[in-house]
Amino acid sequence: MGAAVTVTDLVVHRGPRRVLHGLSFAVPPGQVTGLLGPSGGGKTTLMRAVVGVQVVRSGEVTVLDEPAGAPVLRHRVGYVTQAPSVYEDLTVRENARYFAALHGMSAREADAALADVGLADAAGQLVRNLSGGQQSRISLACALVGAPEVLVLDEPTVGLDPVLRVELWDRFHALAAAGTTLIVSSHVMDEASRCHRLLLLRDGDLIADSTPAELRRDGRSDDLEEAFLNLVMDRQEVAA
Ligand SMILES: Nc1ncnc2c1ncn2[C@@H]1O[C@H](COP(=O)(O)OP(=O)(O)OP(=O)(O)O)[C@@H](O)[C@H]1O
């Protein structure tokens, strides 16, 4: 397989507005690709197109050599939205075991997924009684338990304490090392340095498709946030 995800000339409108302006890029397999940029830049919209739940105006999105959203991808692509997508009237363990069963996985694998996100101690609690950060983590566990080949995570570390963030990033790297392709959005630039590759989105345009080292070089700064701002200003000068 070449790229895990290929996006070609993707244009998306939401409501009356064009929010993605003809994006093209490829996501390599077995790596963590960060989708970064300011709020409203189109990260969620792009992720929705990759998992096949976004109406696209034109262009193509291919995932694991299939059209995005193809039924055959259902068990091969995992998606964790920003809002928790689990049953709040079930316990943490019941949710994990339910999603495990849907993917043909065992209760033991469900419990392992809970441990991976640091929720083993909360397994008996009802989801509705959990904090926002814990609810995000149970959503993540329910996606992990299916062992998808492509995992699309929309801001998975929002609201998490620093220790847990580091643990989750270690987990993402372990998954990538085992062959999983991860696309992880964040608007926190310090997470950019943890990615193998970066896609920087601003106002629906791709500002950069590079590694953190390339971004530092092209943006003339060791600080990734500053490098990103320099790239934005470079583009504005070219456009002027
Ligand atoms: N349901 C919708 N209807 C109309 N416009 C929308 C809808 N959802 C998002 N948009 C618009 O599409 C643009 C891109 O939004 P999107 O949620 O993809 O950005 P984002 O980079 O993920 O932002 P954030 O980091 O805040 O989640 C924004 O201008 C937003 O206002």
TrEMBL record:
One of its GO terms (molecular function) is ATP binding. Residues 5-228 form the ABC transporter domain. Pfam families: ABC_tran (PF00005). Signal peptide: none annotated. InterPro entries: AAA+_ATPase (IPR003593), ABC_transporter-like_ATP-bd (IPR003439), ABC_transporter-like_CS (IPR017871), P-loop_NTPase (IPR027417). Keywords: ATP-binding, Nucleotide-binding. The keyword Nucleotide-binding applies. It comes from the Bacteria. This is ABC transporter ATP-binding protein. The lineage of its organism: Bacteria, Bacillati, Actinomycetota, Actinomycetes, Geodermatophilales.
